[in-house]
């Protein structure tokens, strides 16, 4: 069974930094994309940043220049370094992964989500 476990959320003052980590474990054959989404109270879940295997990272406009996503493929881990945090960044952050669990090239890729880690930025 595939699991995503996040860590690193918490409470920080505006202008501060946090680093989120997400480790994928279980029966994973090939990871296509890893990334982060967030959901603020009363709002829809939105993409923060993602990094496809062998591709360019993609960021939401609201976090460009402040957040940096990175992956450690050997550890099946994705990180999100968040700097210059703002109160509007307050949300639950979810790790997201698209992966295949079979070597058969015809097998579909699947989506996986972590349980979420809360980030609160005080003004």
Cα(first) to Cα(last) distance is: 40 Å
Radius of gyration: 15 Å
- Tally the helices: 0
On the 0-100 scale, what is the average pLDDT?
95
Q: Which stretches are low in confidence, meaning pLDDT under 50 for 5 or more residues running?
A: none
| Main sheet overview | 7 strands, mixed
| Secondary structure: number of strands | 11
Structural class computed from helices and strand pairing: mainly beta
Helix content: under 10%
Order of helices and strands: EEEEEEEEEEE
Q: Could you say which overall geometry the principal axes of the C-alpha atoms support?
A: elongated
Strand content: over 45%
Task: Briefly summarize what is shown.
With 123 residues, the chain is mainly beta. It has strands at 3-7, 10-13, 18-25, 30-39, 46-52, 58-59, 67-72, 77-82, 91-100, 110-113, 117-122. Strand 4 (30-39) and strand 5 (46-52) form a beta hairpin.
Tags for this model:
123 residues, 7-stranded mixed beta sheet, 55% strand
What does this structure look like?
By secondary structure, the protein is mainly β. It has no helices and eleven strands. Strands 2, 4, 5, 6, 9, 10 and 11 form a seven-stranded mixed beta sheet that branches. Strands 1-3-8-7 form a four-stranded antiparallel beta sheet, with no helix packed on it. It is elongated and about 50 Å long. The model has no long low-confidence stretch (mean pLDDT 95).
Write the layout of secondary structure elements.
Blueprint: E1 3-7, E2 10-13, E3 18-25, E4 30-39, E5 46-52, E6 58-59, E7 67-72, E8 77-82, E9 91-100, E10 110-113, E11 117-122
Parallel strand pairs: 2-11
Antiparallel strand pairs: 1-3, 3-8, 4-5, 4-9, 5-6, 7-8, 9-10, 9-11
């Amino acid at each position: 069974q595939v699991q995503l476990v996040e860590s690193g959320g918490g409470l920080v003052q505006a202008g501060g930094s946090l680093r989120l980590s997400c480790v994928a474990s279980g029966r994973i054959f090939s990871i296509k994309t890893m990334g982060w989404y967030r959901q603020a109270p009363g709002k829809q879940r939105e993409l923060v940043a993602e990094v496809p295997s062998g591709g360019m990272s993609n960021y939401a406009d609201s976090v460009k220049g402040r957040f940096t996503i990175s992956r450690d493929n050997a550890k099946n881990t994705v990180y999100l370094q968040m700097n210059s945090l703002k109160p509007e960044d307050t949300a639950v952050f979810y790790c997201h992964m698209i992966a295949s669990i079979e070597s058969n090239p015809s097998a579909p890729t699947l989506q996986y989500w972590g349980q979420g880690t809360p980030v609160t930025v005080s003004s």
